[in-house]
């Protein structure tokens, strides 16, 4: 397919004329022209000029199984022929939705045994927001409706999910957050930890939750939502003290704990779910992305027996999406989960690949531009800084150096993202050690080029 498309320049012109890109400065993109990805295999992308690029982001943190798995294609094709669509409203069900719900209940920790299907991560979080309020109303406490989340968390782009998120730039557009959502600070020790030890800082940030609950009144708070490891916020790995304290506080005040596992689910952190790596058990998990390895859209809210039983005894939950439990998406997810399990992909990612990647990734701290290197499983970040000892920020507006470094990576055929002046990775779980070596070589080259640029421009 890659050799019968229009010339790149023509595709770029059409793209600029008609295709509106998410989270993109369209005028800048029109000037540069989009890089057009035409095919992929394993961890490698091919663009319309035939360049081969190492995808260290697994698309958007989602292609956990790697590109080009024929098994997923075959399952989708078979399911489309047999039953391309049927809904799960009005007392009907489908075999793929049933079998996937059963499998997710097996994989999920604790008593998270019940699955509400959605179409994406964002609308899963909208489901969660409505569901926790419905839950408390069903328990006779409708005033328990506030959801607490975190600044610089990311939970999606819909009105509800973007409100739960703590991205101020998103809130500034469209009158967000919606009422009933309040934010506390993130556990980002590198940027905000000052003179505290990471452990003390982790406790301090967790206890902000307790302070906020007491300020609002526990009888007004429905839930706390957070990513086990912040992804879009810059792969912020919390200090080890953080999550146990959050769990304690939620338990003490009877607040539901929602783990947004959209990125951290399905092997990303070396276990099936990020909460297992971070050592806590939520009441609800938000899932998407890796559930199908991104081959087809699907989201899910996986909830505890207690939540299910309460909802079961209440009025019907007046909520649902046309594509909830889409049979093709569920069939693909089931096959994806089978392969992640039976091919040993999640197991190997945790036991073999993650330690190798950690060693290589952390070796980047010997580079003059790199302050801390953080990594958990196969998601990692490095903080770029002009002064490691003081954890200083660059004089240029935040993100200028990160963006430059990202551009060098892309030119060197490595997809690595920047969040502000942090560089982040989240490669497919099937990445090999040899491919990790290439990733690190290209990252180092891009860092060298960034440093040379900063020195030449007198910006460092
Ligand atoms: N939650 C988290 C933690 C995410 O990282 C994302 C997407 N990056 C979302 C929710 C939203 O998912 P989607 O883009 O599928 O709506």
TrEMBL record:
Molecular function per GO: pyridoxal phosphate binding; transaminase activity
Superkingdom: Bacteria
Entry keyword annotation includes Transferase: yes
Descriptive protein name: Aminotransferase
Signal peptide stretch: none
Protein family according to the UniProt entry: Belongs to the class-III pyridoxal-phosphate-dependent aminotransferase family.
CDD domains hit by this protein: OAT_like
UniProt keywords, alphabetically: Aminotransferase, Pyridoxal phosphate, Transferase
InterPro entries, sorted: Aminotrans_3, Aminotrans_3_PPA_site, PyrdxlP-dep_Trfase, PyrdxlP-dep_Trfase_major, PyrdxlP-dep_Trfase_small
Entry annotated with the keyword Transferase: yes
Cofactor: pyridoxal 5'-phosphate
Biological source species: Celeribacter baekdonensis B30
């Amino acid at each position: 397919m890659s050799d019968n498309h229009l010339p790149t320049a023509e595709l770029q012109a059409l793209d600029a004329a008609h295709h509106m890109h998410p989270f993109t400065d369209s005028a800048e993109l029109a000037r540069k022209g989009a890089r057009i990805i035409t095919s992929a295999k394993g961890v490698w992308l091919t663009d319309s000029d035939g360049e081969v690029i190492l995808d260290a982001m697994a698309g958007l943190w989602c292609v956990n199984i790697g590109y080009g798995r024929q098994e997923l294609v075959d399952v989708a094709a078979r399911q489309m022929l047999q039953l391309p669509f049927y809904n799960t409203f009005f007392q009907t069900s489908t075999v793929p939705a049933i079998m996937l719900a059963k499998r997710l209940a097996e994989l999920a920790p604790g008593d998270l045994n019940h699955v509400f299907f959605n179409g994406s991560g964002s609308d899963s979080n909208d489901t969660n927001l409505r569901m926790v309020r419905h839950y408390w109303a069903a328990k006779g406490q409708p005033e328990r409706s506030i959801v607490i989340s975190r600044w610089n968390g990311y939970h999606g782009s819909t009105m509800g999910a973007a409100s739960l998120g703590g991205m101020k730039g998103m809130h500034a557009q469209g009158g967000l957050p919606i009422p009933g959502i309040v934010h506390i600070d993130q556990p980002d020790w590198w940027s905000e930890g000052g003179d505290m030890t990471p452990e003390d800082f982790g406790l301090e940030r967790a206890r902000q939750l307790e302070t906020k609950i007491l300020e609002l009144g526990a009888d007004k708070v429905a839930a706390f939502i957070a990513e086990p490891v912040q992804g879009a916020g810059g792969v912020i790995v919390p200090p080890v003290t953080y999550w146990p304290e959050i769990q304690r506080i939620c338990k003490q005040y009877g607040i539901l704990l929602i783990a947004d596992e959209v990125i951290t689910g399905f092997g990303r952190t070396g276990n099936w779910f990020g909460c297992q790596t971070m050592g806590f058990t939520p009441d609800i998990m938000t899932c998407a992305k890796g559930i199908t390895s991104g081959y087809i859209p699907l989201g899910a809210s996986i909830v505890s027996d207690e939540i299910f039983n309460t909802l079961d005894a209440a009025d019907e939950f007046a909520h649902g999406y046309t594509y909830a439990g889409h049979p093709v998406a569920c069939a693909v997810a089931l096959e994806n989960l089978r392969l992640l399990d039976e091919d040993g992909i999640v197991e190997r990612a945790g036991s073999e690949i993650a330690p190798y990647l950690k060693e290589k990734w952390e070796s980047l701290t010997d580079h003059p531009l790199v302050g801390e290197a953080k990594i958990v499983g196969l998601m990692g970040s490095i903080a770029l800084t002009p002064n490691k000892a003081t954890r200083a920020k660059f004089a240029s507006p935040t993100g200028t150096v990160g963006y430059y470094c990202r551009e060098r990576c892309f030119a060197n055929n490595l997809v690595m993202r920047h969040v502000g002046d942090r560089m982040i990775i989240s490669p497919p779980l099937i990445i090999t050690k040899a491919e990790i070596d290439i990733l690190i070589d290209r990252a180092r080259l891009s860092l060298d080029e960034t440093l040379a640029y900063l020195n030449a421009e007198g910006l460092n």
